[in-house]
Amino acid sequence: MNPAASLPAEPRTWRRFTPAQRAARFSVYFVIVAAIVASARTVEVIPEFLYDAPEQMQDLFRRMWPIAFYHYAGGVHEALVDTLHIASLGTILAVVMAVPIGLLAANNVTPNKVVNYFAKLLLVSSRSVNSLVWALLFVAVFGPGALAGTLAIAFRSIGFVGKLLGEALEESNAGPIEALKAAGAPWSSILAKGYWPQVEPSFWSVVLFRWDINVRESAVLGLVGAGGIGMALDTAMNLFQWDRVAMVLFSIFCVVVVAEIVVTQIRKRVI
Q1: Which tens digit of pLDDT belongs to each residue from 113-134?
Q2: Which CATH superfamily is domain 66-270 in?
Q3: Distance (Å, rounded) from C-alpha 257 to C-alpha 251?
């Protein structure tokens, strides 16, 4: 009989994380805390402004009430319609430009590394510039108005739509594609019969979601002169007409809620 077999087994201690994992978690937490401390030190916070902030907010809300509903017909409705037009036309223009770039960015659709990297560079460039910055650029080129806002929404949305479309194409099942290629189908048939049925739900979901986002973003483009309801908001704020500011904000809130409901209902029926 083996003497070691008769010895009682040592109790095993269960530990949730290994020493390496605990060190890694500590490093992550330390970096996060250090970043927060560094950010707090660089942001100039004036304590006096913080102390009376509640009183200032109460005073602002008192100035906004009652809401100037009479101002809607003359100063809000037309600007609100322009905002919806900017969001819709910008989304359509973005889809038209993003689809070919998304096809070029997908490795399985365009097996050329140089073309893939160039297309991805375009998508990253579009996403890296905020819509307000795009609006400032187009206002400088085309002047203030809805055209600048439409182009700003479109160029900002190209990266979003193209990136998600390219990823959906790369995740598609290769079986139908290989079958079509083996049958000698042309590239257009492979794209229409092989890739499109697989990415169609994702495509429409991305387009609807982007339009919903663009409705929100187009509401503030008028602050830099790019048309829409933001211009009405900027005018009311500059004139200190806070009851009209409340009317504009209320209109934006209603439009965002309605857009969310519309997008949800369309997704239920289309996707």
Answers
A1: 888 888 888 888 888 888 888 8
A2: MetI-like (1.10.3720.10)
A3: 10
